[in-house]
Amino acid sequence: MSKKLNLELSDKMYANALNIIPGAVAGIRRPYNFVPGEYPIYFEHAKGGRVTDVDGNEYIDFLCVYGAIIIGYREEEIDNAVIEQMRNKGFCFSLTQPVQNRLAEKLIEIIPSAEMAVFVKTGSDATTTAIRVARGATEKTKIVRCGYHGWHDWCVEVKGGVPPKLYEDVYETHYNDLDGLEEIMKQHGDDMAAIIITPVGHPLAEKVQEPKPGYLEGVRAIADKYGAALIFDEIRSGFRVDIGGAQKRYGVTPDISTFGKAMANGYPIGAVVGKREFMKVLADKVFLSSTFFPNSMEQIAALKTIEILERDNILAAVRKKGEFFGNLVEEVVKNCGYDVEFSGAPLMPFITFNKDKDGLYKKLRPAFYTELIRRKVFLQPFHHGYVCYRHTEEDLRYSANMIAEAFGELKNYI
């Protein structure tokens, strides 16, 4: 076993925060989502593809703010564009700044489903807006969902504080399962406002899946058959799988789409785009408003991020890096001697331990990720990772080697 990291300050800050902030830190960032006692709880700073915690430990970061970082941390060209906006024009007004139109025009140019666009702050804002648009446009009530779509009442996984009546019209289907979707639609199709899916499958704590041949086309056909809006939740896949989203890569166009995360390389923005016949309800029939939705800092960041992605062919480079890393890790996993799967390459790498009847995976998983974090490689046990542009070949090779070392230590935990 390798030596435990010094996390003294991080642990002290966490203990203090428990007295002043419920849970100390928000949701998925809480220690039980990692390996308690082994992972840091607070980061101090970051640059490129690396992060440093409050105790001074530096990590190669493969979580990338759960996908929000596509280029790298503290990208000067993006930050400088935002700083210029702040200093010379300001960013929060009672009325709207012109940059909103430029960003909408850009999304309409590059995203197949986009004929109109609106802007919000988060992915949860975007998916909830999309649901409201679908219900307003179809004048139907029920929803079929597949994947994680945020923390709002209609889709949150943890139901505490949410009355059942607020999600009783929402039905869940499984990714790559057309038969299951068809069965739900047979029962409820007459009142089905929308089918919302992640075009790339990333179920909670499970391996990442690509669409099987015909799956996305089949979902499109089922939506058309029952007169439901098809929504692609591209919060993770957008501006990563392709500049125009997974819909462009796979050639299936939804009615409404949501984007966020990598769209502005970490700045808080979400977008809902879609066909005019659906989006137009936001003009007068469906209400959407917020003091901060029109803020221009994030819109400037998004425009500059998209400019860099296109100009420097960033996504092709990220895919190439991911393929290099994926090939190395695939070889390690194949020879590790444990019942483990590697999925999500080249863009969303995830190492998962398959369940066994004796429950050995419950020991192996935290042990593996303990050894990995001690080697300064930051991956999450229950969430897939990401590859960003600033990850170097040296970073990727080192990380693959550390994965191999971590597997080699597991015998000491059994």
Description:
The chain has 414 residues and is of the alpha/beta class. It has 2 domains: 8-73 and 314-412, Aspartate Aminotransferase, domain 1, CATH 3.90.1150.10; 76-311, Aspartate Aminotransferase, domain 2, CATH 3.40.640.10. 37% of the residues lie in helices and 14% in strands. The protein has helices at 8-17, 64-67, 76-88, 99-110, 123-138, 178-188, 215-226, 246-250, 276-279, 296-311, 314-334, 361-374, 393-409; strands at residues 43-47, 50-53, 58-61, 116-120, 142-146, 170-172, 192-197, 229-233, 256-259, 270-274, 340-343, 350-353, 377-378. The strands form 3 sheets. The protein has a 7-stranded mixed β-sheet with strand order 4-10-9-8-7-5-6, sandwiched between helices. A 4-stranded mixed β-sheet has the order 1-2-3-13. Strands 11-12 form a two-stranded antiparallel sheet. Helix 4 runs parallel beside helix 10 (296-311). It starts with 7 loop residues before the first helix and ends in a 5-residue tail after the last helix.
